[in-house]
Amino acid sequence: MAELSRRSVTQFGARADGQTDDSAAFNAATQAASDWDEALGGAIYIPAGRYRIDRPIRVRKGQHLFGDGEATLIDASRASGPTLTLGLDEKGRIDPGGAPVGATGLRFLGGSGSAPVIKVHAAGFALSHLFLSAAGTAIEVSGSDGVISDVVVDQALRGLVFRSAQNIVVQGLVTYLANFAITLEEASNDIVLAQAVLAYSRYASVLFAEGAAGIGSVRFTACDFLSNEAFSTFLGHVHVRSQPCDAQFSACTFRNHPGFAVRQQAGTGAELSFDGCVFDGSPSSIRYSASASSAGLLTGAGARLSLSGCRFRALAGPAVAIGPDLANLVWQGGSLSAGGADPLRFEGKPSGRFSVSGVNGFGRTNGDGSLVLPWRGATTAWRIAARATRSPGGFAAADCVIVGQANGHSVTLLEAAGPSLDLSACFGERPGGQTRTHDDQGVVCLSAAGRSDLEWSAETIG
Questions:
Q1: Burial, 109: exposed, middle or buried (Cβ in 10 Å; 0-12, 13-18, 19+)?
Q2: What is the largest CA-CA distance in the chain?
Q3: Does residue 229 carry a pLDDT above 90?
Q4: Cα(444)–Cα(427) distance, rounded to whole angstroms?
């Protein structure tokens, strides 16, 4: 194998004066017009300075473009196409070979509104320590087997776009004020995003694109989704509109968002899981106001949703809202606290299955000590338990069952254990309501006569 070279773009005529188009000098350094062979590989240095780049720079397989950090500025404000393309020659042919291609230690300003600043075609690549500002699209990946680390995107229409991308690891990404921080297009799978901060997205932090198919095995780990700005355009930190997709979120925080943090209303068959995540309606500092409409997750459209050990706190709206055509919801463990609305709300005609178990604080309590739970047709059954906290104490547990009859529905308590409290159930928000209704869904109220000092637990059965 030929010895790898090291050269500087200034050796090929780059001026770095911010006025001269240095595209030709960069492409001479990368030998963009040459047929690929291993001899093209090497390190290409971009010293500190301001480089005007109007035409695409072709970075070949085996080459690594590196600069002096933010002191090396690539001015792409006049570009009409991509600024860097990784893994292509001047004729648009994909380079062969297993040697990776990469770029590190660069700052970019501007970019074409119709093309990404960095376009990755290669199988095998690395992008690190980059700062991209005022881009149309910052980075688009159509390659595979790559690592993106310590990248900042400051104001962009789109931050990272994955299209037919596979086996990608993204670590330490930061985005500010992007319309869409991350977009997943068709045939993108085996993608891991860890320790990202996605702040102040105008539309969505993560978009599963309209109608896109083949999105699978996408994992978000320890990512912070922050929205202290109440943009009227906001669709959700996670907005799902794709065909069947498979995504997991673990140890992520969704904070101070207007409306739902996660919205899944289009496409079909999404499988989403949230493990140990926090949904928080409070602002990140005293300089901001809390959202008046923060809520957790909105799901439907054939989705299968799993929540495990998640915490919901200070939300103005429901923790989970179920829309039409839900396939399945499993909600286990975690807690709800300091919320002002129902933990679970049904929107539209009842469908699908749901189960809730072991969620601390589930249910909405009234000032009189009663508990309000949602019900959805005759398939609904809650196992409840109440404990009196003041002397004389008491405990009771029962199954609250909705029974369908020819003339409507009735609510019935089947006593299970500990009949030291006199439990009762009715339809509606307050004790003493009707025990029959012609509605298809709504809420039931559980209470114990003469007691307002009750702690409740509730989970679905059946």
A1: middle
A2: 90
A3: no
A4: 4
- pLDDT at position 46 over 60: yes
What type of residue is 25? A
Q: What is the pLDDT of residue 349?
A: 72
Cα–Cα distance list, 14 to 21, 44, 59, 81, 91 (Å): 8, 12, 16, 20, 22
The span from the CA of 436 to the CA of 440, in Å, is: 11
Q: Binning pLDDT at 50, 70 and 90, where does residue 2 land?
A: very low
Alpha-carbon Rg for the chain in angstroms: 28
| Tokens found for residue 346 | 């049904």
Convert the pLDDT of each residue in 282-333 to its tens digit: 999 899 999 999 999 999 888 999 999 999 999 999 999 998 888 999 999 9
pLDDT exceeds 80 at position 194: yes
Could you count the other beta carbons within 10 Å of the beta carbon of residue 187? 16
Could you give the percent of the chain with pLDDT greater than 70? Answer: 97
Average pLDDT over residues 358-369: 88
Tell me the pLDDT tens digit for each residue of 410-423: 999 997 666 678 89
Domains annotated for the chain, with CATH where assigned, are 5-370 (2.160.20.10), 371-462 (2.60.40)
Mapping DSSP onto H, E and C, the string for the chain reads CCCCEEEEHHHHCCCCEEEEECHHHHHHHHCCCCCCCHHHCEEEEECCEEEECCCCEEECCCEEEEECHHHEEEECCCCCCCCEEECECCCCCECCCCCCEEEEEEEEECCCCCCEEEEECCEEEEEEEEEEEEEEEEEEECCEEEEEEEEEEEEEEEEEEECCCEEEEEECCEEEEEEEEEEECCCCEEEEEECCEEECCCCEEEEECCCCCCEEEEEEECCEEECCCCCCCCCEEEEECCCCEEEEEECCEEECCCCEEEEECCCCCCEEEEECCEEECCCCCCCCCCCCCCEEEEECCCCEEEEECCEEECCCCCCEEECCCCCEEEEECCEEECCCCCCEEECCCCCCEEEEECCECCCEECCCCCEEEEEEHHHCEEEEEEEECCCCCEEEEEEEEEEEECCEEEEEEEEEECCCCCEEEEECCCCCCCCEECCCEEEEEEEECCCCCEEEEEEECC
| Phi, psi at 265, each rounded to 5° | -125, -5
- Side-chain-side CA neighbours of 436 within 13 Å: the count stands at 4
Tell me which residue of 284, 217, 286 sits closest to 253, measured CA to CA: 284
What's the whole-number average pLDDT of the chain?
93
